[in-house]
């Protein structure tokens, strides 16, 4: 489904062919960033809150082993079945085995980016099991046979008219009706059938509390609750980094999460699932999938603090103007660009370069992940591991040679300026990517250094 | 106080007037300023492209040229940040470390080190301030729109000392222009779009000039303005602060 053979820059270029859409996409997401700003500026202790959250997560990462075992023990005592998955494949197999045991071919799902990361929908589809994403945005991209373009706002790249057309095709709504309220009601009726007929509900996990063995799912639509309450079996899938030590720590994260994500003080529902109701079966699948490896890396471990709020997407000037699909990975945006190379360097070598290193992502991050510094560090790792082009390597070597030798630097500079003045056609052509949409700087007659030497000679 | 003037390579080659304005401005405050004539580049273009390991020689050259000064002043937030964060010299690690600590961007040097309170400068124009990201979020030259902290701005305080100058408001006061070093060619479409959007914001608010502490951002915005045949010009903040009273 992902156009793997194209780089972020190529996909972003395609996205930019439709300027009106880029403007609309940028403004829509900037509006969410502004909502975030309005919300956080009402909390005078916001920066302190971020620091506390960051420290709690640091503590979790340093003691993850113990917290995970405590969580397992407490959850099992509550009657929950715990499963451990080393990678995406194991995760998918575990989920499949539970479904198979109950002999169903149809499940409902809500709020899980982890299952996107693991490619669960495709896996189960191949086994003849239909997964219905019940969150509206997720359902829209699922009907369109597309991956989400944003972790919190999965169909943010879709305009309401396009959704009207999609619903007309798939749900039989009247052609040309793009009224959001009408379309939402249509989706609701369509999903209600699935909720009522599904014996298994799968959800993601926002936080898992080691002390109590409970999980918390934060939603606005309430689909996780509806799905779980109606189903005989609840399967919750979580990355092992979702642990927090105690219930009291949850308040810190709940205050940060929704404000950072959408500018709401809190999500409509913060649902605690501590034990299966009578007669219900509950499973939690704890997934590693490269997280332990990342934990061992001093430079990149702190990306595991991420609470998936999406604030770094909304603030990122590159994301807003290139769209989520240009990142060709389940988690797009700045955080995706530091997570994806950890999964597959070769496939995602372009992503850490899809940034100007402006640092806005780091500033909005509610758990203080040094996102733009990690982008810089990934660039070094990628080049050292040979994930760069021959031409870039040659170019950089030449540049380094020239800039290391003052005389060579001055000579090249003079030649460059002379070419700009005397033979501009050598520079002003279609091979120059600067010149495609920008004029060249006007070449000065002399360098600053020449002026300086002349002037000092004159003064003496 | 001996000051080493660090003029980034692209300013040396393409915008000598920015170097001249910086030198003259510092000398107007009675400072002793020297331009070490064998300086080249801080190494940032390689480092940000993932080739930090190729910056040994440029870093060594930088340390050789600058380590003896009391302060090193540079009219670029970005190059200053690179020195502060990444300068290393295997032959003289302690010299590299002390050089890092005494390198300052021009407006932070004027504000924090020599603490200027007034300025004889006149620039009767409507000016938009482009906050370059490395100056803003890297060096902390001003309050950042994302952080819940008290407002301040070193470049803006200096511009407010210039008579006749009218500073315009912007809809997005500190969004990146999209230059980003080699990003500007490797991610050409997004880079240009980001620059175009910044230009629109400045023009919509009546800017005659766009200024900033980084000529690299301004060079990118200038390329876009000139392609659009716009009358709006870019000007480095040193040139405004150094503009004579008539």
Quick rundown:
The complex is a heterodimer of chains A (460) and B (246). Chain A is of the alpha/beta class.
Key traits:
heterodimer; A: 460 residues; alpha/beta; four-stranded mixed β-sheet; 21 helices; 10 strands; 52% helix; B: 246 residues; four-stranded parallel β-sheet; 13 helices; 12% strand; globular
Outline the fold blueprint.
The complex is a heterodimer of chains A (460) and B (246).
Chain A: H1 8-15, H2 19-40, H3 46-62, H4 64-77, E1 81-85, H5 88-102, E2 106-110, H6 113-118, H7 120-126, E3 130-133, H8 136-143, H9 160-171, H10 180-197, E4 200-203, E5 207-209, E6 214-219, H11 223-230, E7 233-239, E8 243-244, H12 247-262, E9 269-273, E10 281-287, H13 291-295, H14 311-315, H15 317-320, H16 333-343, H17 360-364, H18 371-384, H19 390-404, H20 406-422, H21 448-459
Parallel strand pairs in A: 1-10, 2-3, 2-4, 4-7, 5-8, 7-10
Antiparallel strand pairs in A: 5-6, 6-9
Helix pairs in contact in A: 2-12, 3-12, 9-10, 16-18, 19-20
Chain B: E1 2-5, H1 9-14, H2 16-28, E2 32-34, H3 44-47, H4 56-66, E3 71-74, H5 77-86, H6 93-101, E4 103-105, H7 106-113, E5 126-130, H8 133-138, H9 154-159, E6 166-167, H10 183-186, H11 188-204, E7 209-212, H12 215-227, E8 233-236, H13 237-241
Parallel strand pairs in B: 1-2, 1-3, 3-4, 5-6, 5-7, 7-8
Helix pairs in contact in B: 11-12
The major sheet of chain A is characterized as: 6 strands, parallel
Seen as an oligomer or otherwise, the chain set is heterodimer
Strand order, largest beta sheet of chain A: 1-10-7-4-2-3
Strand order of the largest sheet of chain B: 2-1-3-4
- Measure the end-to-end span of chain B: 30 Å
Q: What is the helix tally of chain A?
A: 21
Low-pLDDT ranges of chain B: none
Instruction: Give the integer mean of the pLDDT values of chain B.
Output: 97
Low-confidence runs of chain A (pLDDT<50, min 5 residues)?
none
Q: Major sheet of chain B, described briefly?
A: 4 strands, parallel
Structural description of this entry:
The complex is a heterodimer of chains A (460) and B (246). With 460 residues, chain A is of the alpha/beta class. Chain A has helices spanning 8-15, 19-40, 46-62, 64-77, 88-102, 113-118, 120-126, 136-143, 160-171, 180-197, 223-230, 247-262, 291-295, 311-315, 317-320, 333-343, 360-364, 371-384, 390-404, 406-422, 448-459, and strands at residues 81-85, 106-110, 130-133, 200-203, 207-209, 214-219, 233-239, 243-244, 269-273, 281-287. A six-stranded parallel beta sheet of chain A has the order 1-10-7-4-2-3, sandwiched between helices. A four-stranded mixed beta sheet of chain A has the order 8-5-6-9. In chain A, β5 and β6 (214-219) form a beta hairpin. In chain A, α9 crosses α10. Chain A is globular, with a radius of gyration of 26 Å. The N and C termini of chain A lie far apart (71 Å). The relative contact order of chain A is 0.12. In chain B, α11 packs across α12. The model of chain B has no long low-confidence stretch (mean pLDDT 97). By secondary structure, chain B is α/β, with parallel strands linked by helices. Chain B has helices at residues 9-14, 16-28, 44-47, 56-66, 77-86, 93-101, 106-113, 133-138, 154-159, 183-186, 188-204, 215-227, 237-241; strands spanning 2-5, 32-34, 71-74, 103-105, 126-130, 166-167, 209-212, 233-236. In chain B, α12 (215-227) links the parallel β7 and β8. In chain B, the strands form two sheets. In chain B, strands 2-1-3-4 form a four-stranded parallel beta sheet, sandwiched between helices. Chain B has a four-stranded parallel beta sheet with strand order 6-5-7-8. Chains A and B meet through α1, α2, α17, α18 and α19 of A and α1, α2, α3, α4 and α8 of B.
């Amino acid at each position: 489904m992902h156009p793997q053979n194209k780089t972020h820059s190529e996909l972003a270029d395609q996205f930019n062919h439709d300027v009106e859409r880029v403007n609309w996409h940028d403004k829509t997401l900037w509006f969410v960033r502004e909502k975030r700003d309005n919300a956080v500026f009402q909390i005078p202790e916001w920066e302190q809150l971020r620091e506390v959250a960051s420290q709690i997560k640091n503590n979790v990462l340093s003691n993850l082993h113990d917290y995970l075992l405590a969580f397992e023990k407490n959850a099992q005592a509550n009657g929950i079945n715990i499963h451990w998955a080393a990678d995406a494949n194991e995760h998918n197999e575990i989920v499949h085995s539970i479904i198979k045991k109950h002999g169903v071919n149809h499940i409902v799902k809500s709020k899980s980016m982890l299952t996107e990361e693991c490619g669960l929908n495709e896996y189960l589809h191949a086994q003849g099991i239909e997964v219905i994403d019940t969150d509206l945005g997720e359902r829209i991209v699922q009907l369109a046979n597309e991956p989400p373009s944003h972790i919190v706002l999965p169909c943010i790249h879709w305009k309401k008219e396009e959704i009207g057309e999609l619903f007309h095709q798939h749900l039989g709504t009247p052609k040309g009706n793009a009224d959001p309220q009408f379309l939402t009601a249509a989706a609701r009726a369509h999903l209600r059938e699935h909720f009522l007929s599904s014996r298994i509900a799968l959800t993601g996990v926002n936080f898992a509390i080691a002390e109590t063995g409970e999980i918390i799912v934060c939603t606005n639509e309430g689909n996780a609750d509806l799905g779980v309450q109606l189903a005989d079996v609840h399967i919750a899938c979580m990355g092992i980094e979702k642990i927090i030590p105690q219930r009291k720590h949850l308040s810190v994260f709940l205050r940060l999460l929704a404000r950072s994500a959408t500018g709401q003080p809190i999500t409509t529902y913060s649902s605690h699932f501590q034990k299966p109701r009578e007669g219900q079966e509950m499973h939690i699948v704890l997934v590693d999938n490269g997280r332990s490896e990342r934990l061992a890396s001093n430079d990149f471990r702190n990306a595991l603090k991420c609470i998936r709020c999406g604030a770094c997407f909304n603030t990122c000037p590159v994301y807003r103007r290139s769209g989520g699909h240009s990142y060709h990975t389940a988690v797009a945006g700045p955080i995706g660009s530091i997570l994806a190379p950890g999964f597959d360097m070769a496939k995602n070598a372009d992503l850490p370069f899809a940034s100007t290193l402006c640092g806005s992502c780091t500033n909005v991050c509610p758990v203080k992940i040094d996102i733009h510094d990690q982008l810089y560090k990934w660039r070094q790792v990628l080049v050292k591991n040979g994930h760069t082009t021959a031409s870039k390597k040659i170019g950089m070597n030449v540049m380094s040679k020239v800039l290391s030798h003052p005389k060579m630097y001055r000579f090249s500079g003079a030649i460059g300026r002379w070419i700009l003045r005397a033979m501009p056609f050598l520079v002003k052509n279609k091979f120059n990517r600067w010149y495609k949409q920008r004029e060249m700087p006007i070449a000065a007659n002399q360098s600053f250094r020449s002026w300086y030497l002349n002037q000092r000679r004159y003064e003496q | 106080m001996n000051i080493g003037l660090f003029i980034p390579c692209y300013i040396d080659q393409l915008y000598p007037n920015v170097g001249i304005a910086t030198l003259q401005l510092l000398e107007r405050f009675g400072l002793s300023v020297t331009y070490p004539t064998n300086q080249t580049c801080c190494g940032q273009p390689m480092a940000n492209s993932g080739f930090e390991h190729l910056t040994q020689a440029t870093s060594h050259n930088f340390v050789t040229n600058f380590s003896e000064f009391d302060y090193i002043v540079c009219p670029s937030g970005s190059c200053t940040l690179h020195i502060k964060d990444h300068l290393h010299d295997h032959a003289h690690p302690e010299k590299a470390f002390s050089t890092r600590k005494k390198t300052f961007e021009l407006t932070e040097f004027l504000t924090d080190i020599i603490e200027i309170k007034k300025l004889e400068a006149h620039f009767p124009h409507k000016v938009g301030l482009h906050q370059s990201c490395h100056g803003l979020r890297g060096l902390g030259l001003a309050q950042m729109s994302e952080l819940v902290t008290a407002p301040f701005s070193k470049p803006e305080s200096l511009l407010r000392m210039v008579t006749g100058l009218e500073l315009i408001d912007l809809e997005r006061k500190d969004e990146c222009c999209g230059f980003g070093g080699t990003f500007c060619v490797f991610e050409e479409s997004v880079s240009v779009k980001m620059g175009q959007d910044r230009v629109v914001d400045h023009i919509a608010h009546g800017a005659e000039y766009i200024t900033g502490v980084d000529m690299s951002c301004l060079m990118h915005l200038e390329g876009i303005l000139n392609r659009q045949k716009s009358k709006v010009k870019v000007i480095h903040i040193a040139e405004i602060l150094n503009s004579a009273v008539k």
